[in-house]
Write a structure and sequence with these properties.
With 473 residues, the protein is of the alpha/beta class. It is 34% helix and 21% strand. It has 10 helices and 14 strands. Strands 1, 2, 3, 4, 5, 6, 7, 8, 9, 10, 11 and 12 form a 12-stranded mixed sheet that branches. Strands 13-14 form a two-stranded antiparallel ribbon. Helix 4 packs parallel to helix 7. The longest helix is centred in the middle third of the chain and has 25 residues.
């Protein structure tokens, strides 16, 4: 029975705590930690882990591989937060730099999870991104007041899950009719945060952690080297702790309070990590190819390219009869795939200044980490996805049910008359233009810019979101 299993799990946690108090187990708890371990909020956190994290783990064990690996890291993160919650109950509220050092164990585990999404995109990329992005929710523990630069803990958990839900929904859609274990994992991951972690924070820490007024002083960050007599300007902030994405545009509000604390945790890295040099070809005034259909040139796709990427040799091959892989193609304007069918997928990775023609119907197309890449395809059964790209153009000559653009700057989408009803999804992207054919055969293409800014107004007990339009002179 489910109720019996839950009761047994709670009893096991209680027994393990009593054993730790009685025998120490080689690492006995201090008096303050022993009392905190029996605190109602800690017991409730253990219930959260056994019920919700345990459900995610059970589903992951049926899947295995990278999904199980990232789920184990989720367990590590929640274990790290439990230890911090116990320490908070016997520690005085630290300074900003001291808090950064205090939260470092939590940060270290999250950084380990983030590395799983780096490099070549795996078949379980959506699982990994959903899991890693969801871990931002555990930063609620850093809330120290209304001036700390963070939302209230409850709101922070809800907002953090919204970032992860984009990828979690992709898992649900992809495996809805294929594998119930993946669907169960995605549903369990969402319930871990909504209602799991949200309701826990709401019940025990709605205004953030409560630090001890008489406890020990938290360990401060290591002292900095003595400053020279010459004053030095402040360094630019490093990348945010809980995100592996590129730095936000300069128009974003500068980080204050706790957001700056998270940035300081990764102090071991150079402050210029993640900054990009703006070259002439990236400036809008130098763009001369704003309109027109992608030209693919002659069919010479099977010839190896003389240009090699530092990431590896160029590839254009069919793997296991199911997946076309196009990698590290540099300066090739005439790549062609014409021997394909509706059961095959196409994965394009790390290409630059190239154009690929896909002649025929395929199941799925993914364009990942490409720059100035052009893709022309006829029909796609499932979706065409553009991820982590810069300055790409995609032309659909037939039909495509879904086109998604994620974490991309500069994307031109050309639709045919048969693909005007396609569903276009964008996330964390800018400069997205969609070009559609005119009414007549000789009419010009119509260009439509998708909004990247939105206004949110609270009306009738809910927020109403509308796109922001700009009228230029």
């Amino acid at each position: 029975m489910p109720m019996d299993e839950k009761l047994i799990q709670r009893l096991e946690f209680a027994v393990s705590r009593l054993e730790a108090l009685s025998f120490g187990g080689g690492a006995s708890l201090g008096d303050g930690e022993a009392a905190a371990a029996l605190d109602p909020s800690i017991i409730a956190f253990d219930d959260l882990r056994s019920q919700f994290v345990g459900r995610v783990r059970s589903a992951a064990e049926k899947i295995g591989g990278q999904v199980l690996d990232v789920t184990k890291i989720i367990e590590e993160v929640f274990e790290a937060q439990r230890e911090l919650l116990i320490k908070i109950k016997e520690t005085q509220k630290p300074s900003m730099s001291g808090l950064a050092q205090f939260l470092k164990p939590l940060n270290d585990v999250i950084v380990k999870a983030t590395k799983m999404t780096e490099g070549r995109r795996s078949d379980f990329f959506n699982h990994l991104k959903a899991a890693v992005d969801s871990l931002t929710a555990l930063a609620w523990i850093a809330y120290t007041g209304k001036d700390c630069g963070m939302s209230l803990p409850i709101a922070h958990v809800e907002e953090s899950w919204q970032m992860a839900e984009f990828y979690n929904n992709k898992v649900l859609v992809e495996f809805r009719n294929k594998d119930p274990n993946h669907v169960e994992w995605a549903k369990a991951l969402k319930e871990l945060y909504l209602p799991g972690l949200r309701d826990y924070v709401k019940s025990h820490y709605p205004l953030g952690p409560v630090w001890s007024a008489t406890g020990k002083v938290a360990v401060s960050a290591p002292p900095k080297a003595p400053a020279s007599s010459r004053p030095m300007p402040p360094p630019p902030p490093p990348a945010s702790l809980f995100s592996s994405e590129s730095p936000q545009p300069s128009s974003s509000r500068p980080k204050k309070g706790m957001a700056a604390v998270f940035d300081e945790i990764n102090s071991g890295k150079p402050v210029t990590v993640g900054l990009r040099k703006v070259t002439d070809d990236m400036k809008t005034k130098n763009h001369t190819d704003k309109t027109g259909v992608i030209s693919a040139g002659e069919k010479e796709g099977r010839v190896s390219s003389p240009s090699f990427s530092k990431a590896g040799p160029p590839k254009l091959e069919l793997q296991m009869g199911r997946k076309w892989v196009i990698e590290n193609q540099i300066g090739r304007k005439n790549l062609v795939i014409d021997d394909c069918d509706a059961k095959q997928s196409v994965y394009i990775f790390g290409c630059k200044d190239s154009v690929l023609q896909i002649q025929g119907k395929v199941n799925n197309i993914t364009v990942d980490k490409c720059t100035k890449m052009g893709v022309v395809f006829t029909d796609v059964v499932a979706a065409c996805e553009v991820v982590n790209c810069n300055g790409v153009e995609v032309q659909c000559q037939g039909s495509a049910p879904t086109i998604s653009v994620d974490n991309t700057t500069g994307c031109q989408l050309y639709l045919s008359k048969d693909s005007l009803e396609t569903s276009i999804t964008t996330a964390k992207s800018s400069e997205i233009n969609v070009l559609v054919p005119g009414a007549g055969p000789d009419s010009d293409w119509g260009e439509h810019a998708l909004p990247q800014q939105f206004a949110h107004v609270y009306k009738n007990c809910q927020f109403v979101t509308t796109p922001v339009s700009h009228s230029g002179g």
